[in-house]
C-alpha cells in the first residue's frame, strides 16, 4: 500500500513536469504578446520592443524556460507581469473561494445524486425514476451559465432571497459564506449531479438483481437496509470513480461559474491571465491544477480499498 | 417499515416547513462607500507605465497633476498656484500651490515634479514634443519649476493638462526616477484618495479611502480641474467581468455604479426606477480602419480612396450598437464633436456608401486580384462585426478579401508586421480610440503620417506632416482649428485611414448617486456623493 502510494506520488511529479513544459511551449509559441497589451493601442513598435526587453521576453525560449523551471523547483512561480504581485500570493488569495465552491458543490451534488440514483433504481420504471432521470437529462443538457442566469433571476432578482454575486470568507460567518455559495453550487452541481445519479442508478440496478439481494430480502431486511447496507456498498466503487472524474470536471466548470457569479477564485484568475497573456500566472496555475488533478485521482484509487475490502487482498 | 413515495413526500414537506425562513441576504452598500464596476480590471498600478484608461482612473485618485482640463477641455492649473511665460515665449515658470503633500507625510517639491515630468515625457507623445523643444527643465527651488525652450512651443500647457493616457501624474522623486519601461512599486501620491492595499485583492476588488489631509483648490470642480472635494469615505471597484451579472448586481443594489453596461442590456436597467443613466464622455469613441501602405493594394492612393466610398458607417455602427441614440456617423479625421472636428473635403462622406464608385477606383488603381487580409478580432464586438462587414463589401465588388480570425491580443502582435501577406502580414485592421484623443494630432500617433515612424499602416505624406508641425506651433485655438481643416483636406486625398463612426456608452448608476463629473478619458470619484 505504502509503495503504491509512493509510486503514484512520483508519477504525479512527472505529470506536473510534462504539463509545465507543454503549457510553457503552448503559451510562448502562440501569437500575442503581453508587451503589446501593456504598451497600449497608441504605442510604437520601438516602445513594444523595449517592454519586451524589460520583461525578458526577447530572450531565447530555452533560456526563458530554464529560468522559469529553476525558479519553480525552488517554489518560486514568479511575479505577475501586470500587477507585479507574486503568483503564489495570488493563488493563495484565490484558493479559499475555489475550494469553498468546489466543496459545497461536491457535498450537494454527491449526496443528492447518490440518494436520487438509489431511489430511482429502487423504483425503476416508476414516476420517481422518470422524474429523477428527466432532471438528470436536463442537468446534462443545459449549460452552466444558462442555469446560473436563471437562478440569479429567480432567487436574487425576483425573490430576493440570495445575493447575485460575490464571495464572503467563512471567517465572516457561516451564513454570509454559505448564502453566497448556494446559487453557484446549484448551477455548477447540476451537471455533476446528473452524471453521478445516472451512474448510481445503473450500478445499483445491477446490484439489486444479484442473488445476495434476494437473500437479504428473504431474511426480512428492511427496504432502507437493503438499499444502503447491501446495494450501495456493493455499488460503491463505480460511484467513487465517477465522483473522482466529476471533481476533475469541476475544475473546468469552476472557471465559468466563478465568472457568472463573480467569485474571486483560481478559475477567474486563469481566464483573466490568459486574456492578458500574463504568462507567469497561467504557468503557475496550470502546474497547481495538474498537481491537484493527479492527487484527486490518487485519492480516488486509494478509496477503492476502503470501499471494497476485496481490493485490499 | 417499507419506504413509500407518500412517506418520502411527507418527510420532505416536514423538513421544508421546519427550516427557518430564508432571510433577505442582501444589504444596500454603505452610505459613504461607493461600489462600482468599471470598464475592466485594474491590472497595473503605474499610470505612466501603461496607457490603460483604468490605470489612469487609479492615477487620478492617488496622484495629482500640475494642470488639468475642465469640462470645456481647456487647461487649468491644478497643483500649480501661479505660472508665467516669458515675453520671448521661451521660459515657463511654474510655482506649486500651498498645502501639497505626499501621502507619506513629506511635502511635494519641485524636484519631485521635474522627475515626474521627465518620466512621463518618455511615454507620452505630448511629453516627447515638449522635451524635443526643451533646452532645460529644472527645479529653481522647492516650489518652482522652470522649463526653458529652444524655441516657442504652444502646446506645453495643453500637453501637461491633457487627459489622454498616460496623464502627467506627479510622483515622489524616488518613484519618478524608475525606468519608464518598468513599473513603480510605490503607491504613494498626493491625490485626494489613498490606495488601500490591505483590502485590495488584485483581479477581484480594489479599495481606496478618502485622504483627509488633501487640500483641494477653492475653484468649482469642472472636468478634471477645480477643487477635488471628496464626499465618500471609501471607493470600491468590484471586478465583475460578466456583463449580465454586473447588470443584475446593479439592479439588486449590490453595486452603485456600472461604467459601461452593454447597450443591449440597457432596457433591463432603464426599467428599474431606482437606476439612472448618464453619458460620462460626450466625445465618445471613434472607430477607424487602418490600411497597410507598404503593400498592394493599399500602397496605391486610389485603392485607399475606394475604401472611403465602400464603407457604410451606419451599417457598421448599427451592427454593434443597435440604438441610433448612442451613435453618430462621422466624416472628420479629428473625431466626432471634438474642438478640431470639421467637414473639409468630405464629399465622399455624403456619397458613401457607393460600391460602384469603390469598384471603379479599385480598377483605376490597377488592382490585380491581390489578396486583402482583414484582421478580425473575434473577442471585441466592434472589431469582429466591422471586419465581417468590410470583408463582405470588398468581396461584393470583386476584391479578393479574406478574414483572418484571431484574438485582439494576436491582432496587436500581427499588425506590427511589415511583411507581405504571405509572410504573416496584413492589409486591414480595425480599432477604435477615445473621441477626444482625435482632437490632438501630436499626442495621437494614429494621426501622424511620417512613414515608418507613424502608427501601424505607416502612412506617409510630407505636406500633411508640415501642417502637423504648424498645428503644434499654432499660438491660438482658432489657428489650430484653421490648420486642422487644411490637414483634413489633405488627409482625405491621400487617406491615412478610414473613419468608421462614433458612439457613446452611458454609465448606469443608482439614483442615490450624485455628482459624477464628466471627462473624455478619466472618471473622477471626487465630488461624488450618495444620498
Give structural notes.
- With 313 residues, chain A is mainly alpha-helical.
- Chain A has a domain at 97-312: Orthogonal Bundle (MetI-like fold), CATH 1.10.3720.10.
- Chain A contains 14 helices and no strands.
- Chain A starts with a helix and ends with a helix.
- The relative contact order of chain A is 0.14.
- The model of chain A has no long low-confidence stretch (mean pLDDT 84).
- Chain B folds into 2 domains: 33-237 and 512-530, Periplasmic binding protein-like II (D-Maltodextrin-Binding Protein, domain 2), CATH 3.40.190.10; 285-503, Roll (Dipeptide-binding Protein, domain 3).
- By secondary structure, chain B is of the alpha+beta class.
- The model of chain B is unreliable at 15-25 (pLDDT under 50).
- In chain B, helix 13 (381-396) links the parallel strand 17 and strand 18.
- A 7-stranded mixed sheet of chain B has the order 10-11-12-1-13-21-14. In chain B, strands 5-6-8-7 form a 4-stranded antiparallel sheet.
- In chain B, helix 15 runs antiparallel to helix 16 (477-494).
- The N and C termini of chain B lie far apart (62 Å).
- The relative contact order of chain B is 0.15.
- Chain B has 16 helices and 23 strands.
- At the A-B interface, helix 2, helix 3, helix 5, helix 7 and helix 8 of A face helix 7 and helix 14 of B.
List the helices and strands and how they pair.
The complex is a heterodimer of chains A (313) and B (531).
Chain A: H1 2-29, H2 34-39, H3 45-55, H4 61-73, H5 87-122, H6 127-141, H7 144-158, H8 174-208, H9 211-218, H10 223-234, H11 236-260, H12 266-276, H13 279-307, H14 309-312
Helix pairs in contact in A: 1-13, 5-6, 5-8, 5-11, 5-13, 6-8, 7-8, 7-11, 8-11, 9-10, 11-12, 11-13, 12-13
Chain B: H1 5-18, E1 33-37, H2 53-62, E2 64-65, E3 67-69, E4 75-77, E5 80-85, E6 91-96, H3 110-123, H4 125-133, E7 134-141, E8 144-149, H5 156-161, E9 169-170, H6 173-176, E10 193-195, E11 205-210, E12 234-238, H7 243-251, E13 257-258, H8 266-270, E14 275-278, E15 285-291, H9 301-310, H10 313-321, E16 327-328, H11 347-351, H12 355-364, E17 371-377, H13 381-396, E18 400-406, H14 408-414, E19 428-434, H15 462-473, H16 477-494, E20 497-503, E21 507-510, E22 513-514, E23 529-530
Amino acid at each position: 500500500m505504502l509503495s503504491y502510494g509512493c509510486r503514484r506520488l512520483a508519477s504525479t511529479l512527472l505529470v506536473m513536469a510534462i504539463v509545465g513544459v507543454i503549457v510553457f511551449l503552448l503559451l510562448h509559441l502562440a501569437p500575442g504578446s503581453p508587451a503589446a497589451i501593456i504598451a497600449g493601442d497608441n504605442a510604437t513598435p520601438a516602445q513594444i520592443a523595449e517592454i519586451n526587453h524589460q520583461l525578458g521576453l526577447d530572450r531565447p525560449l530555452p533560456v526563458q524556460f530554464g529560468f522559469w523551471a529553476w525558479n519553480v523547483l525552488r517554489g518560486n512561480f514568479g511575479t505577475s507581469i501586470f500587477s507585479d504581485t507574486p503568483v503564489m500570493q495570488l493563488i493563495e488569495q484565490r484558493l479559499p473561494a475555489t475550494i469553498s465552491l468546489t466543496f459545497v458543490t461536491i457535498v450537494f451534488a454527491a449526496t443528492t445524486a447518490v440518494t436520487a440514483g438509489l431511489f430511482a433504481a429502487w423504483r425503476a420504471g416508476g414516476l420517481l425514476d422518470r422524474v429523477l432521470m428527466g432532471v438528470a437529462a436536463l442537468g446534462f443538457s443545459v449549460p452552466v451559465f444558462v442555469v446560473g442566469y436563471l437562478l440569479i433571476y429567480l432567487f436574487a432578482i425576483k425573490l430576493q432571497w440570495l445575493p447575485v454575486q460575490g464571495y464572503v470568507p467563512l471567517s465572516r460567518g457561516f451564513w454570509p459564506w454559505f448564502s453566497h455559495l448556494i446559487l453557484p453550487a446549484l448551477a455548477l452541481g447540476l451537471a455533476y449531479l446528473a452524471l453521478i445519479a445516472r451512474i448510481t442508478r445503473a450500478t445499483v440496478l445491477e446490484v439489486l438483481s444479484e442473488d445476495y439481494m434476494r437473500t437479504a430480502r428473504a431474511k426480512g431486511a428492511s427496504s432502507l437496509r437493503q438499499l444502503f447496507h447491501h446495494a450501495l456498498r456493493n455499488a460503491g466503487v463505480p460511484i467513487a470513480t465517477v465522483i473522482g472524474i466529476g471533481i476533475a470536471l469541476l475544475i473546468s466548470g469552476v472557471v465559468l461559474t466563478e465568472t457568472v457569479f463573480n467569485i474571486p477564485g483560481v478559475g477567474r484568475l486563469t481566464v483573466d491571465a490568459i486574456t492578458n497573456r500574463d504568462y507567469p500566472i497561467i504557468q503557475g496555475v496550470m502546474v497547481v491544477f495538474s498537481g491537484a488533478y493527479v492527487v484527486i485521482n490518487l485519492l480516488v484509487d486509494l478509496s477503492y480499498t476502503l470501499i471494497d475490502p476485496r481490493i485490499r487482498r | 417499515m417499507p419506504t413509500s413515495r407518500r412517506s418520502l413526500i411527507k418527510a420532505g414537506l416536514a423538513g421544508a416547513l421546519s427550516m427557518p425562513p430564508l432571510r433577505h441576504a442582501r444589504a444596500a452598500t454603505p452610505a459613504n462607500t461607493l461600489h462600482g464596476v468599471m470598464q475592466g480590471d485594474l491590472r497595473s498600478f503605474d499610470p505612466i507605465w501603461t496607457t490603460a484608461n483604468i490605470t489612469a482612473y487609479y492615477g487620478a485618485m492617488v496622484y495629482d497633476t500640475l494642470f488639468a482640463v475642465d469640462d470645456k477641455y481647456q487647461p487649468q492649473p491644478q497643483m500649480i498656484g501661479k505660472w508665467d511665460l516669458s515675453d520671448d515665449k521661451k521660459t515657463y515658470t511654474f510655482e506649486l500651490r500651498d498645502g501639497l503633500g505626499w501621502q507619506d507625510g513629506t511635502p511635494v517639491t519641485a524636484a519631485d515634479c521635474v522627475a515626474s515630468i521627465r518620466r512621463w515625457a518618455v511615454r507620452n507623445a505630448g511629453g516627447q514634443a515638449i522635451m524635443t523643444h526643451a533646452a532645460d527643465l529644472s527645479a529653481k527651488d522647492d516650489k518652482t519649476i522652470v522649463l526653458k525652450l529652444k524655441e516657442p512651443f504652444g502646446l506645453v500647457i495643453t500637453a501637461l493638462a491633457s487627459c489622454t493616457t498616460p496623464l502627467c501624474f506627479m510622483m515622489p522623486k524616488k518613484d519618478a526616477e524608475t525606468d519608464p519601461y518598468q513599473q513603480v512599486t510605490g503607491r504613494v501620491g498626493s491625490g485626494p484618495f489613498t490606495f488601500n492595499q490591505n483590502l485590495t485583492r488584485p483581479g477581484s476588488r480594489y479599495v481606496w479611502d478618502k485622504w483627509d489631509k488633501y487640500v483641494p483648490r477653492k475653484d468649482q470642480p469642472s472636468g478634471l480641474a477645480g477643487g477635488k472635494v471628496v464626499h465618500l469615505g471609501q471607493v470600491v471597484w468590484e471586478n465583475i467581468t460578466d456583463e449580465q451579472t454586473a447588470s443584475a448586481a446593479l439592479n439588486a443594489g449590490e453595486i452603485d455604479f456600472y461604467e459601461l453596461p452593454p447597450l443591449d442590456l440597457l432596457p433591463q436597467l432603464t426599467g428599474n426606477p431606482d437606476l439612472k443613466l448618464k453619458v460620462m464622455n460626450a466625445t465618445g469613441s471613434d472607430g477607424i480602419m487602418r490600411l497597410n501602405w507598404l503593400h498592394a493594394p493599399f500602397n496605391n492612393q486610389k485603392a485607399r480612396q475606394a475604401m472611403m466610398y465602400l464603407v457604410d458607417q451606419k451599417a457598421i455602427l448599427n451592427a454593434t450598437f443597435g440604438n441610433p441614440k448612442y451613435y453618430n456617423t462621422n466624416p472628420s479625421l479629428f473625431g466626432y464633436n471634438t474642438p478640431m472636428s470639421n467637414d473639409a473635403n468630405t464629399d465622399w462622406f455624403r456619397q458613401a456608401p457607393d460600391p460602384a464608385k469603390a469598384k471603379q477606383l479599385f480598377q483605376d488603381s490597377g488592382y490585380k486580384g491581390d489578396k486583402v487580409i482583414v484582421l478580425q478580432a473575434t473577442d471585441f464586438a466592434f472589431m469582429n462585426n466591422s471586419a465581417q462587414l468590410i470583408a463582405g463589401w470588398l468581396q461584393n465588388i470583386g476584391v479578393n478579401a479574406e478574414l483572418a480570425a484571431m484574438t485582439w491580443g494576436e491582432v496587436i502582435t500581427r499588425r506590427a508586421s511589415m511583411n507581405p501577406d504571405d509572410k504573416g502580414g496584413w492589409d486591414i485592421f480595425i480599432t477604435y480610440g477615445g473621441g477626444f484623443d482625435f482632437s490632438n494630432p501630436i499626442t495621437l500617433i494614429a494621426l501622424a503620417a511620417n512613414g515608418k515612424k507613424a502608427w501601424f499602416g505607416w502612412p506617409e505624406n510630407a505636406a500633411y506632416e508640415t501642417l502637423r508641425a504648424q498645428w503644434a506651433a499654432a499660438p491660438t485655438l482658432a489657428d489650430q482649428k484653421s490648420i486642422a481643416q487644411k490637414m483634413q483636406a489633405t488627409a482625405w486625398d491621400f487617406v491615412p485611414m478610414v473613419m468608421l463612426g462614433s458612439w457613446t456608452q452611458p454609465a448606469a448608476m443608482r439614483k442615490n448617486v450624485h455628482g459624477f463629473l464628466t471627462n473624455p478619458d478619466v472618471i473622477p470619484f471626487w465630488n461624488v456623493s450618495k444620498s
